[in-house]
Amino acid sequence: MTTPSQLQPVDWSRLPRRHAISAADAAQRLVRHPGWAIEGEGAGTALAKTYHFANYFQTLAFVNALAWIAHQQDHHPSLQVDYGRCTVRWNTHDAGGLSDTDFDCAQRTDTLVSTL
Ligand SMILES: C[C@H](O)[C@H](O)[C@H]1CNC2=NC(N)=NC(=O)C2=N1
């Protein structure tokens, strides 16, 4: 039987360094990410989107699949989980705001949802 300890380790050293991007730059990038919104300000600025699901089980299945992306990318979103929806907020605390990684992970989240 395969257990999590037998999975290949993720080589996080290959991930790009994370730099904060300006509010103007973030607003420009947002147009390429339908349904996502920029919330908050300063270090608390986040890229947010709410996804809707048929029931609690499907919502949690999404959360578990997203956990794999978070693990691979070494980037961990804030999640608000309700019965049939989940709000995902990407923010880079290391950079004190938004970074390329947040937009990359937003795209990965959309791609995941499109395959569920
Ligand atoms: C040491 C570790 O790589 C860092 O703390 C990572 C982990 N996960 C992270 N997740 C998020 N959302 N932002 C970060 O800056 C971040 N940094």
Describe the protein.
There is one protein chain. It contains 3 helices and 4 strands, in the order αββαββα. With 116 residues, it is α+β, with helices and mostly antiparallel strands. The chain has a single domain, classed as Transcriptional coactivator/pterin dehydratase (Gyrase A, domain 2, 2-Layer Sandwich). It has a 4-stranded antiparallel beta sheet with strand order 1-2-4-3. Bound molecules: the ligand C[C@H](O)[C@H](O)[C@H]1CNC2=NC(N)=NC(=O)C2=N1. The ligand C[C@H](O)[C@H](O)[C@H]1CNC2=NC(N)=NC(=O)C2=N1 is lined by residues 74-76, 91-94. Residues 74-76, 91-94 line the site of ligand H2B.
Indicate the radius of gyration in whole angstroms: 15 Å
Q: Total strand count, please?
A: 4
Distance between the termini: 26 Å
Instruction: Tell me the name of the CATH class.
Output: Alpha Beta
**Within the CATH hierarchy, at the fold level, what is the topology?**
Gyrase A, domain 2
Secondary structure layout plus pairing:
Elements: H1 23-30, E1 37-39, E2 46-52, H2 56-73, E3 78-82, E4 85-90, H3 100-115
Antiparallel strand pairs: 1-2, 2-4, 3-4
Ligand H2B is lined by residues 74-76, 91-94.
